[in-house]
Amino acid sequence: TRQKQPLNAEQIAPYSAIVAADTSRQLRPGNAGIFSRQRTLTVSNITQKISAQIAGLGVGWLPTHQIQDALASGRLVRLQVSPPRSPVTLCMARWENHGGKAAEWFWQHCSTPGYFAQWLDPLRSDV
Questions:
Q1: Structure pTM?
Q2: Which long-range contacts (CB under 8 A, 24 or more apart) does 48-53 make?
């Protein structure tokens, strides 16, 4: 974009927000990172979301580790926004003593401090 950054909600609102469908059955639908008055285009998954943004159909937050090639080639452009995206709260829970070695490995792996940062912090450059 040729507009001065960081971009504000008024500058972004005219562009559709590309969102991946929420498959949760128990939780109310979320809207993380969507500005008020912004149209949405819902796709089935993150791969389609990336493709839609590369095609120029809209804007949205993407996990840096999945778009590094598109950023390097210029097919996608990282823009700064104001206010910045609110932090995403991530919670994990499990039943005690319910699971084998694989479940324990998974729990330990995902419990490593900073493990999810590569997906939750869109501005990190060290991933």
A1: 0.67
A2: 48/20, 49/18, 49/19, 49/20, 50/76, 52/18, 53/18
